[in-house]
Design brief:
Elements (H helix, E strand, L loop, with lengths): L4 E4 L4 H12 L4 E5 L2 H15 L3 E5 L7 H11 L6 E4 L14 H29 L2 E6 L12 H21 L4 E7 L3 E2 L2 H4 L6 H4 L3 E2 H13 L4 E3 L2 H10 L5 H11 L5
Parallel strand pairs: 1-2, 1-4, 2-3, 4-5, 5-6, 6-9, 7-8
The structure holds NADP nicotinamide-adenine-dinucleotide phosphate.
NADP nicotinamide-adenine-dinucleotide phosphate binds next to helix 1 and helix 6.
Length: about 260
């Protein structure tokens, strides 16, 4: 296997574009998500176009033991992962106390628990071999609290914090960890999160292809935090932190309120 990347959430959106971009560079792949058919279609496309080897592992990463199953399956196939892209994730609109607890828990299980278990298990192998790259997909949501998606924004804050600390620990062992914080991207995300009809989902947004390229290139350079748009980066790093907290909460709530 050459320059092997493990990409979660590769059946659609940004994850699918990460897989396409990595394959275009001649890298082999393990792609995973729940939808097996979509993974097989992507495998066929990439093997045909780029003469790379693509392995598929269809499973539910939010299920109890899902990440462990994936780590064990990769080991059972005798594969050493050079690049781990923890991309699978989902959001969910609504007042936290009125949302279904099972959905809120699954969000934590996927966006945080599976990502951390994979970074831990696969990262350990990278450290033992003296090199590797990890890209964790957070969001600009990581950089502010998010009323009407309180749990989602908080999961992404965890990912951004965790990734930076892990980079500092692992860098001396040849492993870098980057946090990709995209703004709004046109994928299946908004529909899955029931965000249609909000100002957030009405934005022009970025394409999954452009975000995957910026994220992947940033990861290869070992960047700590990657934001796909300069304007957003300036706003979130230099303006929002200076605003009163309640002003930020009201702004974010407004963006996520559905028009009547
Ligand atoms: N779109 C945006 O505006 C935006 C902005 C910032 C950050 N992000 C982040 O970007 C990442 C990718 O999202 P996207 O926009 O590309 O959305 P997407 O098109 O909905 O893709 C989500 C991917 O995650 C997989 N997934 C969902 N639940 C899963 C589960 N239980 N087990 C395994 N895989 C699961 C889905 O595959 P299956 O359904 O086949 O399992 C799919 O491949 C997410 O972490 C998201 O939070 C998105």
């Amino acid at each position: 296997m050459t320059n092997l990347a493990l990409i979660t959430g590769a059946s659609s959106g940004i994850g699918k574009e990460f897989a396409r971009y990595h394959a275009s560079k001649g890298g082999d792949l393990i792609i995973t998500a729940r939808r097996e058919e979509a993974l097989n279609t992507l495998k066929d496309e990439l093997e045909r176009k780029h003469s790379v080897t693509v392995q598929t592992i269809a499973l539910d990463l939010a299920a109890e033991g899902g990440a462990r199953k994936l780590i064990d399956e990769v080991a059972a196939r005798g594969l050493n992962v050079d690049i781990l892209i923890n991309n699978a994730g989902f959001g969910g609109h609504g007042l936290h106390t009125q949302r279904d607890w099972a959905a809120e828990k699954a969000m934590i299980d996927l966006n945080i628990t599976a990502l951390v278990e994979l970074s831990h298990g696969i990262g350990k192998g990278m450290v033992n071999r003296g090199g590797g790259k990890i890209l964790n997909v957070a969001s600009t949501a990581a950089m502010m609290p998010g009323p009407l998606q309180a749990n989602y924004f908080a999961t992404k804050a965890y990912v951004m914090s965790y990734s930076q600390a892990l980079d500092e620990e692992l860098r001396e062992h040849g492993v870098t960890v980057s946090s990709l914080n995209p703004g709004f991207v046109h994928t299946e995300f908004a529909a899955a999160a029931d965000l249609e009809g909000t100002g957030l989902a009405a934005q022009k947004g970025a394409t999954a292809e452009s975000v995957a390229k910026i994220g992947y290139d940033g990861m290869m350079k070992g960047k700590l935090v990657i934001i796909n748009e300069g304007r957003l980066s300036f706003l979130l790093n230099w303006i929002t932190p200076l605003l009163p907290r309640r002003t930020v909460l009201k702004m974010v709530r407004g963006m996520q309120t559905k028009s009547a």
